[in-house]
Design brief:
alpha/beta; seven-stranded parallel β-sheet; 8 helices; 253 residues; 15% strand
């Protein structure tokens, strides 16, 4: 039997990560670079992106952009492809959660949440898929959520988009996997990121969330590394249209 470790080797692959300036997006970029990929990080904050590039060094490039700007997708994708060529891997980690109660949701807040969490992953993928199709190999990894299947207080806009990400992932798989392009999603539990800062700033709430998991703790950043690398590598070649919950068993209870 050949050494199975080569299944997770991303040497020679090009990976694009949106939302790479912080949180799980930043962690994804660092993990993929450590596995051998050349990584393009995309986000709106230049200083945070520069910090990421400095950490990854020669195998990284960054693009400052608002991925929710649909009219700018062609220019964005051209910028993504410029440093290392067409991406083999796309990780859609950019996201927003306005945490508005149903009675307080505004049209602007709803539209902004939809544009970033749901529309951007589709239209960016749509633009980059043709090059993957020519290679006969590609990996798309979306970010789902506990709210893909659960309703949380103050999460109606966010939850609706994340439920949409679940179906988007399945539909991407149906459309593109025959061309060698897999589409899957990671559903993180509670991890210490900017989006969940309010949760972790409240010790009682954080402990309550941990108690609802099977492992009785919240996520650590390193918990995302293995699942992400699996879905971005040759190891997951026969896995597509799936949502891999990385939540300590929160949704199992």
């Amino acid at each position: 039997m050949a050494d199975p470790r080569h299944l997770f080797d991303l040497t020679g692959r090009v990976a694009c990560v949106t939302g790479a300036s912080s949180g799980l997006g930043r962690r994804a970029a660092i993990t993929l670079a450590a596995a051998g990929a050349e990584v393009i990080g995309v986000a709106r904050r230049p200083d945070a992106l520069q910090s990421l590039k400095d950490e990854i060094r020669s195998s990284a490039a960054v693009v400052v952009a608002d991925v929710a700007d649909r009219g700018a997708v062609p220019a964005l994708c051209a910028a993504i492809c410029a440093p290392f060529g067409d991406p083999d891997i796309i990780v859609h980690a950019a996201g927003v959660n306005t945490r508005e109660a149903a009675d307080d949701v505004t049209p602007d807040g709803w539209d902004a949440t939809l544009a970033l969490n749901l529309s951007a992953p589709f239209f960016i993928s749509q633009a980059l898929v043709p090059a993957m199709r020519k290679k006969g190999w590609g990996r798309i990894v979306n970010f789902a959520s506990l709210q893909t299947t659960r309703a949380f207080p103050g999460g109606i806009a966010y939850g609706a988009t994340k439920a949409g990400v679940g179906q988007l992932t399945r539909a991407m798989a149906e459309a593109w996997s025959r061309d060698g392009i897999t589409a899957n999603a990671i559903g993180p539990g509670f991890f210490p990121t900017e989006l969940t800062q309010a949760v972790f700033d409240n010790p009682e709430r954080s402990a309550r969330n941990a108690a609802q998991t099977c492992v009785h703790r919240n996520g650590r950043m390193e918990d995302i590394d293995g699942p992400l690398l699996f879905l971005c590598s040759q190891a997951s070649g026969y896995v597509t249209g799936q949502i891999l919950m990385v939540d300590g068993g929160f949704t199992a209870k």
